[in-house]
Every structure is written in structure tokens, then in C-alpha cells.
Amino acid sequence: MNRKKFVEELKKMNLFLTEEKLEKLRYYYEILKEENAKYNLTRIIKEEEVYLKRFYDSLTIIKVTAIGNNNICDLGSGAGFPGLVLAICFPESTVTLIESNSKKCKFLKKVKETLSLQNVTIINARIEDYAKENREVFDIVTARAVAPLKHLLEYGIPLVKVKGYFIAMKANIEEEIVDIEKYYTILKIIEVEKITFYLPSENSLRTLLKYQKLDKTNKKYPRRYSEIKKCDIV
Hints:
This protein is an alpha/beta fold. It has a single domain (about 65-230), classed as 3-Layer(aba) Sandwich (Rossmann fold). About 40% of the residues lie in helices and about 20% in strands. It contains nine helices and seven strands. It has helices at about 5-10, 20-35, 45-60, 85-90, 100-115, 125-135, 150-155, 180-185, 225-230, and strands at about 70-75, 95-100, 120-125, 140-145, 160-170, 190-200, 205-215. It has a seven-stranded mixed sheet with strand order 3-2-1-4-5-7-6, sandwiched between helices. The protein is globular, with a radius of gyration of 17 Å.
């Protein structure tokens, strides 16, 4: 997907980016390419693939929610997808990126400083540690292909304000939703929307799951990573 096709496909989602925002995305890509040569940030580095599988894919979140001036948290942001892309395209929002890898955080800080992204906060920590001290503070929490859905719900829901939303950005999730209902009950959430679609050009399957938080989360969650990995929520 070249830049022209990128713009065309965004228009189909009623998203019209200014030249300034498009230029910031271009600079973002150039920094990504440069820094990826120093240490591995992403296996996808060709420009056309980055625009499709990183920039466009990140922005598909608008299919299920308005970004606006919301306070957003991106779990396991990696090289900044979707968090940095949302921060660039929706500067009225505030975006917190949580990433445990210090090298990736160094990269995120470089992009933030180079592009003067005043609406971005970068947290170098494990998600479960951050969630213990920052409960019910975000309007929207999102995660893109970071961990199994059950794990993401346990990590992310404690961060969401009551009546706020958690949005999981996944590929095929059929195996991940087996016995998922007990997570809804214990974490006090409901699924309000689920959509599947294919990326343009190559037709890769994508799924967006949107959950609303109905009440405060029990303080025992999230558990430690070793517990989350070992057994389901109880």
C-alpha cells in the first residue's frame, strides 16, 4: 500500500488526514527504518507493508470507536502500533504507551521527541505492575496482537474507567474466545461490538472486539504474569 492508496482507503472510513499528519507518519516510517537497522523493532519494514499492516491497520480502530479527545492507553505498544499512530492522527487525544522492552521505549521516545508529540506518555514497565497503581483512569484501553485475549482482558480492564471501553485488535480469534464468558462476569464487562474485515490489497483477516466496563474491577486483578499464564481467572 503506497501513500496514495493509504489516503484513499482512509477516506473510505471517513478519515481525512491533513498534510501535516501524513508528513509525520512519513517521518515516523523513516525513523522506524533507521532504528530497525540498529536493533530489531519489527519484522515488517518495507514501506508499502508498514503503511498497510502498521499505519492503516492501527487506524481501523475507528471502525468501532471515536478517538476524539479521549484518554487512551496502548498495552504492549512495541514500536508504537496502534498508540503512536493514534497520537499522530488524533492530536487532541492523550495517549499512554506501556512497553516493558527498554530498547523499544528508547525508540518510542525518539519518535515522540522528533515529531514533538506532546500528547504522548511512555511507560517502561510491565502491564500488570502499571495496572496495580493506575486503576480506572483511561477512557479507552487497546491492545494489538500482544497476548491471548483472556490475558489482555485481565491486564487491560483494571485500567479502564467504569463505562469506558477496552478494544482488542486481533486476527482470527475463534480459539481465543473458548470459555471467555467467565472473564466477562468476573471482570464485569460486556461485549458491545465485534466486527471482522479484511485488510485491503492482501486480504488479511482482522477482528475488533469492543468491551464496556460496567463496574470497578476487583483489586486482585491483574494477577502476576506467571499466574495469568498458568491458569484461567477465578
